[in-house]
């Protein structure tokens, strides 16, 4: 087991002399046995960061440590890490047994019967014992996924790395595997870094999640903290489904004035002091449809989800979403009044996007804030 | 509707007739070669020609063997072609792997330079190669026939194109499993390339099997002659021994036929590799 420490890690690609910064000054610590999810839109540098940890990419600047050992210059095979790839990367000409045992055969001094024993116990743990004689092309996607996991587990590595391992599975299988992966990780207690672009997956799986954008680490923290106390507008917008509602508003004393007649009086104006203009954020679940009020929007679509309705509205060309009770069914084209509590309101600096105020509607005392940029 | 169907039938009939004619055009010389191998020289040149096999095959073979030690030539040709094919496959695969999967300086220019050597005809290379071989005292040896042609540009090109289709993740996965670069090559890349290697084996074997001018220049002792060189000895200034030539050529295609039958399935799928989405 090992703690992973990234210090000022920078990766610059240099295709044809044109430098592209994929990851910039990334500082991150993954605790021993922790399940950390790296999440962000495509091209944000999350996979590159993972590949740097794996040793598949050279680190341009900065340092990488496993425990107290500096492994920055170690090759992939010297780092004692195992990786599960998005497309599983099973060796097509080998049977499942050979696939799982390949790493042990190359890197350990075990006899072939010892290797066999270990392969079989891992196969049993993953429920693929009866597939050991099959070739990868004879397996379903879910089975291939298990073989890929088995290949990683069997070597008992210090660190597990997973690069979008569930993205090739169908929705049902994906949520099953999600649970299974978490259980497996808890049982094995191996430090794990998991990359995904799916924020739902990140929220559901991670002990902590690390949000990246444009090569820069935006925020690291437990899922709930990242959701409730995003450090900036990007994090607020990326985390949460459906996405947070965002609009620009002018500040007039303690009053926010937005498009389409949007008006909101703040009880506490200190967060917006010194700002003429701010970005206002409200989570869909915090919007209530009310009988009357100053803020009105036109309903465009209502999507019934069974246990709730998603109500899509337009506030002068700004799309807004409200999660409302299934008993409320406004019709398309109807103008509705909406309201929300100040405690649920997010405010961001209009220029920098930095958070000025985040959710305070529940007691935040027990949530420990840790922000790393 | 009926009109259309009749048109289709006519078209199909014409196609089959055409295919049949073309097949005959190709089979007749082959058939004649085998028939002629069984005829004594007098019957070979008679007119109208005799179109069914005779009984003189073994007499013809005995005469051939006496004149050229043809069994020895077959052995020489098989030995040279097999050794060449094995070594060249290894070299071309390694080069193809490097060009497909590694980054290094001047990779593209070097690759195109290798491809460019395809335009040089063998006739142009024979004299300089002969001079080189005599300088290092390699004339009249098998290694002089094998080694200069090992880096085969078509082979390197074919292997590079096919190696490109191996997913990078597969190689990275092996790297993380602790494989060295050479282990990645022979444990992962080579087995994945089986059908391309079969195709390449046939191409290389055929190339070396048919090589004539170069061995003719290099080989001096008749005991070292390959089949094409031995055959050329049958065209004397006074007389051409057609009966013996026909025996020799009939025998010469047997190893090729065996090789192709063995590798046929892989050969076709190798040539077509990447043409269809799998």
Written description of the protein model:
- Chain A: Part of the ABC transporter complex XacGHIJK involved in the uptake of xylose and arabinose. Responsible for energy coupling to the transport system.
- Chain A: Its main location: membrane.
- Chain A: The complex is composed of two ATP-binding proteins (XacJ and XacK), two transmembrane proteins (XacH and XacI) and a solute-binding protein (XacG).
- Chain A: It catalyses: L-arabinose(out) + ATP + H2O = L-arabinose(in) + ADP + phosphate + H(+); D-xylose(out) + ATP + H2O = D-xylose(in) + ADP + phosphate + H(+).
- With 373 residues, chain A is α+β, with helices and mostly antiparallel strands.
- Chain A has two domains: 225 residues, 3-Layer(aba) Sandwich (Rossmann fold), CATH 3.40.50.300; 116 residues, Nucleic acid-binding proteins (OB fold (Dihydrolipoamide Acetyltransferase, E2P), Beta Barrel), CATH 2.40.50.140.
- Chain A is 23% helix and 32% strand.
- The longest helix of chain A is centred in the middle third of the chain and has 18 residues.
- Chain B has 278 residues and is mainly alpha-helical.
- Chain B has one domain: Orthogonal Bundle (MetI-like fold).
- Chain B is globular and about 70 Å long.
- The chains are: A alpha+beta (373), B mainly alpha (278).
- At the A-B interface, strand 6 and helix 2 of A face helix 9 and helix 10 of B.
Short description:
Chain A has 373 residues and is an alpha+beta fold. Chain A contains 8 helices and 21 strands.
Query: Helical stretch count of chain B?
Result: 14
Poorly predicted sequence stretches spanning 5 or more consecutive residues of chain A: 363-373
Mean pLDDT of chain A: 90
Distance between the termini of chain A: 26 Å
Strand content of chain A: 25-35%
- What's the end-to-end separation of chain B, in Å? 37 Å
| Largest inter-chain contact set | A-B, 22 and 16 residues
CATH class type of the largest domain in chain A? Alpha Beta
